[in-house]
Amino acid sequence: MERKTFLRLLGITPLALSMDSLNALNKISESFSNTERMPLLFIGHGNPINAIEENQFVTGFRDVAKTLPKPNAILCISAHWFTNGTKVTAMEMPRTIHDFSGFPKELYEVQYPAKGSPALAKETKQLLSPTLVELDENWGLDHGTWSVVKHLYPKADVPVIQLSIDYTKPASYHYKLAKQLSSLREKGILIIGSGNMIHNLGMVDFQNFNKDNYGFDWAIEARETINSLLLDGNYQPLIGYEKLGKAIQLAVPTPDHYLPLIYTLGLQQKGESLSLFNDKLYAGSLSMTSLKIV
Questions:
Q1: CATH of 31-293, one of 3.40.830.10, 3.20.20.150, 3.20.20.60, 3.40.50.1820
Q2: 43-99 pLDDT, tens per residue?
Q3: Which terminus, N or C, of the chain has the lesser number of Cβ atoms within 10 Å?
């Protein structure tokens, strides 16, 4: 028996099948209530030890959390999920990934038991079409996500998913891709980019690791350049950061920690303002500069 004949006997038409698909998509969307537009964050996550230490940057995370409405869920773009292609975590309970080495035992014992959100993962996949997005069941929450979100929502009572960064694509691609996620902000989804604007581990000054607001001359120049462009709303040079000169080349030797910033900027809408917090350098070649858009 032909497939069409079989479906007709069951009272199912191709139109009905397409309507079923639409209804399924609507159910995904309806799982998140409409809200006022959520703010955006880019977090300079820095040293993993921030997850268990009390310091000025952790205080900054907590202070900004007080200004946020409680989200229905969180979508985080972390520097530490750098993949060939695009993936989104789709499991019910993401594991806490301790993706670092050489730290105190108590850091490896930290668990952040937030639920995942398969529904949000599926909606994210649909919104990013025609880009192929893999629903991932293996990753979880890496420290770029949980070491920050645990300070924003210490009760782990907000579902969290991660979107990976496709390392084969330039910043301009990621800036445009981010815009396809804009509607999530109207459904109570807090979108966070987590990385560091200045991140050169190869030049870290360990002798001055704890010196307050300490940066090499090139890091000071890079911070001033990036901050000026951010506050002026002049994002095109930031998207084409490779052309911004030697200081920026030293600040961004690899794009992994920089591209989460590009996602945050890509999601900004007309009329929204940008403010900085935790705006300090440390260890010579790193920055904790973070931003909020609302």
A1: 3.40.830.10
A2: 999 999 999 999 999 999 999 999 999 999 999 999 999 999 999 999 999 999 999
A3: N
